[in-house]
Protein: CHAD domain-containing protein
Organism: Pandoraea anhela
Amino acid sequence: MRSMSASRLLISLAASALTQWPPLPTACAPASEDDSRVVDISPESVHQLRIATRRLRALIDVFSPWLKPRWHRRLKAELRWLGHAMGPARDADVLANETLPALRLEYPDVDWIAVDAHLTRLRSTALEQATQALTSERQGALHGLLIEAFGVRDDGRADVGTAKALRRPSRTPGKKPRALARHAHNVVRERYIALFPDCRQLAMLDTEQLHALRVKIKQARYSAEALTPWMRKSIRAPYQDTLRAAQTLLGHLNDAVVAQRMLEDLPIAVAQRDMLSGRLDTIIVNATSRAAHVLCQLPDAQALERGMRRG
């Protein structure tokens, strides 16, 4: 892969990501007011689509110098829209399947009937929002736009000659592999630097700042994954594994924050709400402490530099 031009590598990776784009049903308008048609979107389809959009957003970010600016802006905005549309449904599923069941085991005396009723309404609203987005013309148009942007043929392969989003070679950093190696080096280094100083002072960050750090960690991780050929195995594995572990821990922290926000609207006794919120505070503190320990295992800047391939 290191011998490929940036444009060819980009469309090849984009075509691979698009193979994970699941077939989605189209919403049909009811024939009458008495005819209510429900479009069922499986959790697996949502999961596949989240993976595809995540990979595509990373590719568009990493290879932005090889994309026409207007295509870059449009694709980035549309993928962000789709990702945000699926966010509440994902949060509600985590609440229902992970966060709240754990709390239920610890605090069986809470009014879980009221909690379940509230959560059912919450999940219904979130699923409706996700379904509307995933079955909309906008989602279908985005899929078609991505195929056009990266020249993806019917057989799943990509063609540089038909890819509409690629810039002319004269306006890019260059076609030679060495130009891409320099770009890969710069991207990995920039994403690494962006993690500091926050990753060294997690205990001083509030939940919003921790969420922002988690976004930076995801960007660093996904960029490193997209640029794997330019990272030696000796540095790639510990770097990506550390970022993945920290992202997971901060994800648990974010799930606890989402649960606390839900508690504010729960129709249960104040004492029960405070008890659950206090337990979630403990989860947040523990996740923060563990994430700080994990991030201390990041390789130093010199080791990262030595681990990057030059060509």
Residues 176-310 form a domain with the CHAD domain fold (CATH 1.40.20.10). The chain has two domains: 1-25+42-173, 176-310. Confidence is low (pLDDT under 50) at residues 28-37.
